[in-house]
Amino acid sequence: DAGVIQSPRHEVTEMGQEVTLRCKPISGHNSLFWYRQTMMRGLELLIYFNNNVPIDDSGMPEDRFSAKMPNASFSTLKIQPSEPRDSAVYFCASSLELTGGTGEKTQYFGPGTRLLVL
Amino acid sequence: GQQVMQIPQYQHVQEGEDFTTYCNSSTTLSNIQWYKQRPGGHPVFLIQLVKSGEVKKQKRLTFQFGEAKKNSSLHITATQTTDVGTYFCAGGSQGNLIFGKGTKLSVKP
């Protein structure tokens, strides 16, 4: 099993540019999570999808952030325009939620995308 | 809102010493999960506890879930340099998994 795949692994961009992070969850998993990790704030949940539908996006910082999941095997997190304070490691995680599940199942994390906005 | 507090934030130990990290929730949890993140790596699932008072062991690691299902601990006996990393607890509640801020463990050989 390839595990959760994220790309790019590293991204350096200038303030104001658009950044798109990509995630391929584990095959067969039906829930996908986007996290942001910084030294100051730790691991923060940004958004959570179940069966490709956004369930909880209360963690999305502001309108500059958007996430999509067009199908069960692909998701994107977009930042437009990017700012230096967006510099962080962005993790994607997936899990298998059973019908009527409550979003608490074991999460499998991808290797992360290290984003630096200059 | 729901919060999961984890202490200490940092712990420095000599190799061979024991280590414990504690996790406390403001609400009753349905389950508690523990993850380990090596330096430069990503969080990796270690274990899940579901029952009140549950204790589970993985070699030198002992995990406990409190009777009230509001707190948990991870204890490592005789730490080794391979134990270095950040240990996160994550509490399951009302359909969400809330991560603590983690305890960063460093081990001096």
Name the quaternary structure.
heterodimer
Q: Given the C-alpha coordinates, what overall shape of chain B results?
A: globular
Which of globular, elongated, flat, extended, rod-shaped describes the shape of chain A? globular
The biggest beta sheet of chain A is recorded as: 7 strands, mixed
Percentage of helical residues of chain A? under 10%
* Total number of beta strands of chain A: 11
- Average pLDDT of chain B works out at 94
Q: Average pLDDT of chain A, to the nearest integer? A: 92
Structure description:
The complex is a heterodimer of chains A (118) and B (109). Chain A is mostly beta strands and 118 residues long. Helix content of chain A is 0%, strand content 53%. In chain A, the strands form two sheets. In chain A, strands 2, 4, 5, 6, 9, 10 and 11 form a seven-stranded mixed β-sheet that branches. In chain A, strand 4 and strand 5 (42-50) form a beta hairpin. Chain A is globular, with a radius of gyration of 14 Å. The mean pLDDT of chain A is 92. The termini of chain B are far apart. With 109 residues, chain B is an all-beta fold. Chain B is 0% helix and 58% strand. In chain B, strands 2, 4, 5, 9, 10 and 11 form a six-stranded mixed β-sheet that branches. A five-stranded antiparallel β-sheet of chain B has the order 1-3-8-7-6, with no helix packed on it. The chains are: A mainly beta (118), B mainly beta (109). Chain A binds chain B through residues 42-43, 45, 56, 91, 93, 102-104, 106-112, and chain B through 30-31, 33, 41-45, 48, 88, 90, 92-102.
